[in-house]
Structure formats: structure tokens, C-alpha cells
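Worked problem 6 (solution included).
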Amino acid sequence: MSAGIATLLLDATGTGFLEYSRDLFDRATARALVRRLTRLLDQALADPSRPIGRLDLLDAAERRTLLQEWNGDLVSEPGATLPGLFEEQARRTPGATAVGDLIYAELNARANRLAHKLIAYGLIAYGARPGGVVALSLPRTPDLVAALLAVLKTGRPTCRWTRRTRPTASTT
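Solution. The predicted structure is:
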């Protein structure tokens, strides 16, 4: 057994076996792992342009078990929002430093002004909707924090965090 948890060994024809730690997996679980991996590989080979995140890992029965049986009667309740939590903090400690040289009261006021401008200037009218994406390109300063809060305060887009170390040059 290799040092890993599980190892799938295949020959050139695609036949092989799974070597796994019996301390971690029973036989049924190991077989389920192989079925899922096979399902992923079959889908990837059938449509190589399909992003891996769009491949189905679970079969219909596994998905039903996960979503219906294991979830049971759970009901999702909307939780606190980031803008709501921030405003709560700003009310509790308005004079405390929030970011850089800005105190919570100033950062909250700045974010509120920008959120109202975004709405007034057509952020909503020009395509930003629930689940939509709004791009911000600012240096890592208190202004970026205010802009992020402002976008969230519009109540429309969903946040998708990406990390870019430097801007890419565009050519025309």
C-alpha cells in the first residue's frame, strides 16, 4: 500500500484496481469512490470542453439521498447579511477604527453614499441583479472596502471573490 489514503491503479487498457486503507474505508465505500471517479472520467471524456465543476459526481439515487433523506425536514432560514452585520457593528462602536484611518461611522456613511449612487446611476438598470456579478478594480485601500460594502448594500449582486496579483494588459 502506498503512503496515500487510496490509490487507483490502471493499466493501458483502463482496467485496474483500487488500493485503499481498511482503517479508513469499508469495501462499499471504496466501491462507491471508484463508481464516482468512473462517472467523472466518463463525462469528461464524453465532453472534454465541459468544466470539471459541471460534471456530476453523484448518481440520481445518491443525489436524492443527500438532498431529501439526509436533509430531512431542515429548513433554511435566511441568516444575517454582511452589510447588516457591519451596520450593527457601526452602531455599537461608531468611533472605533474600522479599516486604515476610517472609523466605523465614516466607513458606513461612505459605503451608504456610494450604494445610493450606484442605484441612482443605474447599477440595477444595467444588468446587476440578484446573482449577478459586479466587478471592482481598486487597490487594497479603505476605498476598496467601502466599495465592496456599497455593492453589497445595493442588495443585488452576489459576491464572488477572486484573487489577482496584478492587472493584465489589454491590447487593441
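Discussion: The chain has five helices and four strands.
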